[in-house]
Every structure is written in C-alpha cells, then in structure tokens.
Amino acid sequence: MLFMHDIWVNWFEGEENGYNVCSFHEWRKEDGIELLDQVPLLYIEDSLFTYIENDLQELPKALLDLIHRKAFLRKNQERIAIDYACIVTNGKAILAIDTMGYITPVRKSRLIPRQERLVYQMIEDSQPESFDWRTSEENKQYHILSLQPDLMVGLTRKERQLKQLLMMAMDQLETSENLEQVRYWLTEWKPEEYHVNRSLNFQEAWQKLYEGVSIGWSRKQEELCEKMVKGQPFYEKLWELEQSDQAKTS
C-alpha cells in the first residue's frame, strides 16, 4: 500500500458534489486547515472515483477494511489514528476523504499542488485497483438544491455559494405557489417582458425564471439573489457571510 505523509487538507463537510470541494487556489484564510501525519493513497477506477467525489453513499467494504486506522493525525505531540481516511485518485483528479467514523465520505478535501504532483508521480507505474461495489439502480438525480455540475462550471467559490443561495430562495418560491410573487420576481429579472410575464400561470412563470437564473452567473443574478433573500434572517446571514468572506480574501 502507498502512503503519503504531512498532507495539508481543508475539509468540506457533508458536500455531496465535487464542485463544492474547493481547489487550493480557492482556500480561504479562515478555513480550518489540518495536517495529516500519514494517509493511505489508493489509485482507483474512474467510476468509483466519480461515485466518491459526487455522492455521500456507502464506500465499498473492501476499501474501508483496507484503510482502517491506517491514517494518522498529529495533535501536539500525539499521533492519533483515524478510523477511515485516505487519498483517492483516478489518475486525473485527486480527493482526500474522511468518514469521521461512518462508512460514507463525510469530509472531502483537495490537496495543495505540490502534493498533487507527488500523487501522480507515486502512481505513475501502477494500475488502478478494483473494488467490488454497487450503486443504486438509477444514476444520481440532480435537482434545484443539488445542481448539475455543468451549471457550476467556470464559477468561483463565491459565485457557487451565492448561486446555491439563490436556488434555495427559488425553491422556497416554488413551494409558496404564490402567483403574484413569482410574477413580481420574474419581472425583476425580465422587466422588458412585463406584459408577457403577467399572462403566465404560476408554473410557467416559475419555470421561465428558473431557466433564466440557473444558467451561468452574472451581476444581474447576484442582485436578484440579494433582493430575494432580503427580510429573511437565515438567508440574509448566509449572504452576509459570503460577502464578508470574499472581502477578507480580496
């Protein structure tokens, strides 16, 4: 088994989608960076890597058995064993995972560039290891609160966070089934189509708004997000946190 030592990780907890596990260049000063003393490195097949990176389902038992208490965290002068943690790669991407004692990849992290290069060097003359595993009969289902990766391509960490906040507000709007409210927000988005918007029923108006705001990201979407969360303390707090985090990293 291959092992890596002195690995810096920035854990993103409970993240279902790989696009929310930020690359090193998007790490922030206030992120909780941790140093792992030793971590097993597994070269695995594409399909299993994608499953681990983009889901929170059970890991193969054989994989868990292989890495059991083989990773260590150094705290002060003490070396503490971690139940299930490792670095996985398919030869094209790399991910560190920690199950926090469970059997799912609860925490995920990217590596710093120097350590990524080392991973690729270490597996250079190896073949991916196979594990018996099964997924659900259907492919993963994306939805408004877990957008398809292609809707997040090219976005910065701040933009992804704000887009997810906007989708939370959109989900709440759909649940309300308030015709006047959805027409109002659609007109905020497309004021030049006011007369057309007034003729749409609830589902038509909501779908038109969703199709508009779910593609890409722009200042216009950011402004709409700010307006939609105003007056809702929980959403406002998320908005303010993202703005303050961005200010600190600017």
Task: Note down, in words, how this protein is organized.
By secondary structure, the chain is an alpha+beta fold. The protein is 40% helix and 18% strand. The chain is built from 9 helices and 8 strands. Strands 1, 2, 3, 4, 5, 6, 7 and 8 form an 8-stranded mixed beta sheet that branches. Helix 4 (157-176) packs across helix 8 and helix 4 (157-176) packs antiparallel against helix 9. InterPro entries: UPF0736.
Please indicate the count of domains. Answer: 2
Nearest-angstrom radius of gyration?
A: 21 Å
Fraction in beta strands: 15-25%
Order of helices and strands: EEEHHEEEEEHHHHHHH
Offer a few descriptive terms.
250 residues, alpha+beta, eight-stranded mixed β-sheet, 9 helices
Topology:
Layout: E1 2-10, E2 12-13, E3 33-43, H1 46-53, H2 61-67, E4 71-75, E5 78-82, E6 85-89, E7 94-98, E8 107-109, H3 113-122, H4 157-176, H5 179-189, H6 194-197, H7 202-213, H8 219-229, H9 233-249
Helix pairs in contact: 4-7, 4-8, 4-9, 5-7
